[in-house]
Amino acid sequence: MKSLDLRYIACVYPITGKLDEYFETNAETIRDLIKELDEIYGGFIETFINKETGKLNFNTMIYYGEREMPTKGVLDLDQKISDGAKVLFW
After folding, report:
1. How would you classify residue 10: left for phi > 0, otherwise alpha for psi between -120 and 50, otherwise beta?
2. Which residues contact 66 (CB under 8 A, 6 or more apart)?
3. All domains of the chain, ordered by start, with CATH?
4. What is d(CA 67, CA 31) in angstroms, rounded to the nearest whole number?
5. Out of 5, 20, 21, 33, which residue is the most buried by the measure of CB atoms under 10 Å away?
6. 35-66 pLDDT per residue, tens
7. Measured between alpha carbons, how far is 86 from 7 in angstroms, rounded to an integer?
8. How far is CA 76 from each of CA 70, 81, 86, rounded to the nearest angstrom?
């Protein structure tokens, strides 16, 4: 089980009704995490994943950072995630 620090900004805040949260997950990748968050909040898949290409939507952004490291933009939805990471959905 991984513990993540999640942040929700801009169009994502109305989906979650939260600015941030600590989240426990078994997700292995960003894509898995989006699917899990979609089951809880609804709207994550449509917001972040283009249904035609299966890739990141151009009008959204995800930043990811390992524990004690700065966050960087995510380009690959199949990027692995690790315990203690920060994920910012924008």
Report:
1. left
2. 82, 84, 85
3. 2-89 (3.10.20.30)
4. 19
5. 33
6. 999 999 999 999 999 999 999 998 999 999 99
7. 8
8. 17, 12, 16
Task: Give the DSSP letter string of the chain.
Answer: -EEEEEEE-GGGHHHHS-SEEEEEE---BHHHHHHHHHHHHS-HHHHHB-TTTSSB-TT--EEEE-TTS--EE---TT-B--TT-EEEE-
pLDDT at residue 81 in the model: 97
The Cα–Cα gap between 49 and 3 comes to 23
